[in-house]
Amino acid sequence: MDRRSHRRLCDGPVIVTVTNPAVALPGATTHEITTSRGVLRYHEAGDGPVLLLLHGSGPGVTGLRNFRGNLPFFAEHFRCLVLEFPGFGVSDDFGGHPMVTALTAVEEFVDTLALRDVAIIGNSMGGGVALSYAAAHPDTVRSLVTIGGIGTNLFSPGPSEGIRLLQEFTDDPNRERLVRWLHSMVYDPALITDDLIEERWAQATEPGTLESARRMYGSSAFAAMIAAMENSDTPPPWATMHKVTAPTLLTWGRDDRVSPLDMALIPMRTIPSAELHVFPQCGHWAMIEQKSAFESAVLAFLRREPVGDVER
């Protein structure tokens, strides 16, 4: 059973600290805050400048599963906050499209904790959310790191292999489809262990989590989203990246089969202060598959002082 303690931020909301052995990570604590739309949960480790970590999407994903291997490293240098997005089985489901509610959740989370001068690492969908947040709140974001998942296909077909496999699983879940999708995420198939498959399967097939996933990746929902974008006067996300003023490090696996490397070309060119780091022998999970190289490159970037036009 969870054990809980409470504290209040001045006259603001109560933050509940949750002790739950199922999600325990040495040196990290788990908290929850109540919002007008439901409970947001997050994990905290370390001291220092704020580093917000935003997870990606896909069957059985959580923030802790995306970043648990990196958290001890970054917690030596930063106050790390791993936010669990609504609808993925840890925070409450806010309803609606998970990417839209994720951005709302980040805004409410940052405001509730009164965070300032924030560095952000966003994996895949989390990178897209981070870019949108940074464009809308330039005075809050100090620097930004993305891991694949942004931009648009220029030379490779879309949807990519990984997205098609994700849709197949979401429409009709079974273990074989889950394993095929997981293998599309990595360069080295040895990373897809039985334990990983089991933990992803258990959460991905939980009814509420699956229903949320279908609002994003179900075939009908995905087709409706594409049609809406094609018929809308609103620019697509990749066309607004020039509004991101924060120094940005784009990280990518050279062998990414979910968001192929050619997707990086538009953000690399249009984000004013962007640089690109490509990891060889690496799929979609750069922070896992090239852990040491990723941590080294990201730490050097985050500790670098802003210069030139982006100095604030």
TrEMBL record:
This is Alpha/beta fold hydrolase. GO terms for molecular function: hydrolase activity. It comes from the Bacteria. Residues 51-290 form the AB hydrolase-1 domain. It holds the Pfam family Abhydrolase_6. Keywords: Hydrolase. The keyword Hydrolase applies. It comes from Gordonia hankookensis.
